Amino acid sequence: MAGIETSLDSETGGRGGRSSLAGNATDKALNLLEAASAPGYPHRLGDVAATAGVPKASAHRILQNLVATGFLASDGSGGYGPGPRVRALAARITQGCEEDQVMRAELEVLGRRIGHTVQIGVRTGDAITLLVKVSGPNPVQDSSRVGMQLPLHTTAIGKCVLADLADDRLTDLMGRLGLAPRTENTLTEPAALRAELVKVREQGFALDDEENELGVRCLAVPVRDAKGSVIGAVNVSTIAFLETRETLLSRVDAVRTTAGALHGLLG
Q1: Cα distance between residue 107 and residue 24, in whole Å
Q2: Cis amide bond preceding 55, omega within 30
Q3: Can you point out the beta strands (E) in the chain?
C-alpha cells in the first residue's frame, strides 16, 4: 500500500455460554449485539441468548430495544441480525481506518515473502475473530474468512491468547467452555492443553497441527497491546500436504517481525 512502510520492507525491510461475562446491562446488550450479528444470521432468540449467556427473558427485552434503536433487525419470524446502525458503524470504522491499512499492509508483505495465506485474529469474548486475511497464491485454501469466530483451544491464534492468561483465568475458561474437538487432532484434555501452552510461552509462537481443520496447519505469533498483554496473533495458514511442519517452522522469524510491527496498534 502506497505511503505505508512495513516492517518487512524495512528489513529487506459460537462461543459457548458466556454467563460469567454477561454482568451488567451494558455487558448483556453488547454480548447480545455481538451474538445476533455473528455470521449465519438471522439467529433465533434462544441461540442468541445462549451464546451471549443472558437469560432468555432478559435477552428478549434487550433485543427488542436493540431492534427499536436500529442496532439490530428482526426478520419478523423470531430471527435477529445486524441492523442499519451497526452496518453504518462498521463501515465508518473500516473505511479509511489507519489501523486496518497498517495491518493489511504488513500482512501483504508477509504473504508475499512466504507465499502463504496470512491473517490477524483477536480475542473477542470466548472466541477468536479474524480481522484481516490476505490469501496466498495457492488455489487450495483453508475455509477461514474475515469475521469468522474460531475456538481458542483449537487454533494457533487462540493458543497464543490462552498462553498469556493467568492460571486461575485459564482454569475458569476451560471449565466454562470445555475443550470440544474440531478434528481428531484437537487437544481435548486440560493437561495436554496446559503442556502445549507451556511450550507456546517458551517458544513465543503456537502451532495448530490440523487441530481446527483437517489438512490445514497453522503457525501464529502473539500480537500485544500497549500494556504488553496478548490480544491476538499473526497467523500463517498452510495446506499440510503441500508444506511440511519443518518448513512452516522456518517461517517463525518472518512472522515474529510482522507481529512485532503491530505491537500496540489495537490498544
Answers
A1: 37
A2: no
A3: 43-44, 72-74, 79-82, 117-124, 127-134, 149-150, 206-209, 216-224, 230-239
Q: Kindly report the pTM of this predicted structure.
A: 0.75
Please tell me the total number of residues recorded for the chain in this structure: 267
Q: Which three cell numbers stand for residue 219?
A: 503457525
Provide the CATH number for the domain formed by 97-261 in this structure: 3.30.450.40
AA letter at 5? E
Q: Topology of 25-89 in CATH?
A: Arc Repressor Mutant, subunit A (1.10.10)
Q: How far apart are the first and last CA of the chain?
A: 23
The domain limits of the chain are: 25-89, 97-261
Quick: pLDDT tens for 42-100: 999 999 999 899 999 999 999 999 999 999 999 988 999 999 888 888 777 766 677 88
Cell of 189: 484434555
